[in-house]
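Problem 12. The chain below contains 348 residues. Write out its predicted structure in token notation.
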Amino acid sequence: MVTLESLLDNMPKKVNIKMIASELGVSPSTVSKALKDSHEISKETRKKIKAFAKFYNYKPNSLALSLRNQKTMVIGIIIPDIVHHFFSRVISGIESIANHKDYSLMICISKDSYEKEVQNVEMLTNGSVDGLLVSVAKETLEKENFEHFNQLIEQEFPLVFFDRVPPHSQVDKVIIDDIAGGYNATKHLIEKGCKKLAILTTPSHVTVGVKRETGFLKAIEEFGLPMNASFDIRIDEKFDIKKQIKELFSQNEIPDGIFAVNETYAAIAMKLVQEKGLHVPKDIAIIGFTDGLISKFTSPTLTTIAQHGQTMGAKATDLLLELIFQKDKKRSPKTTVISTNVVEREST
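Solution.
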């Protein structure tokens, strides 16, 4: 009787898909699909094939794959910050799709620097990757210099932007519905009884902040509330953020509700409110943007707008792989918009 153990004992120490297929009496495509956990293959067969692969420490021959496909089998990613919760969730989403397609990731950090971003683009697109996923640096948006991306577009290099994108760019992108997010955040404060609303936002060159403020102003107007110009605080992160937010509480009239376009600004505002001896949310309600760890562990916990970064990463990768393997080189650029939702916690 032939047993699994006897087959394993007689197999060579270095195996490939064809060897596993031959020993188990299945086709190479069945082995390949089973190792990718495809539900086209029965659970029992997948389990048996994975046992072989694990026992012999089988790994796909990435060099053979790349030679066969004339691909590097690597996706390049450029993000402003690796420690930001949102970007970590985006990378998780990218990885979930890329790994399933036998792709590896090469991640570069721009640190919101134009020069660093240009260097990242030049390095990654010099034959190292098959395509590029990019969230644009703040300094690049401020300079309005997108020539390094325009060159890639002209060369038809597979490129997808996510979250922060160059304005008016004719390229594939995945974005958050920031206007609706800002609107819903403001509406939530209004429904909680707030009438004097403030916004902590970014400089005008940061597109996501502008869109979130657009939603904020839309809700203010729709509900017929006054807008105090001194309650519109634009924060330049090159300087002391806390000091800039503190200006909101240094005037005779203070708001009873604050919408911050990210959770960091919201958490700092909460701390300043408490330092003034005021209560959140009884005296001032606060809502942020990006449902990260900061929102979950502030005291009180922070109501926020969830951006669904993992979904964004997965959608962006789907688009990029479509570009990498597309046969129709002249298809129109696609835009995918990710919806947001309010996650209510103690701060409202």
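Discussion. The chain has three domains: 4-59, 65-176+309-338, 178-306. Students who got a different answer should revisit the alignment rule from Section 12.3.
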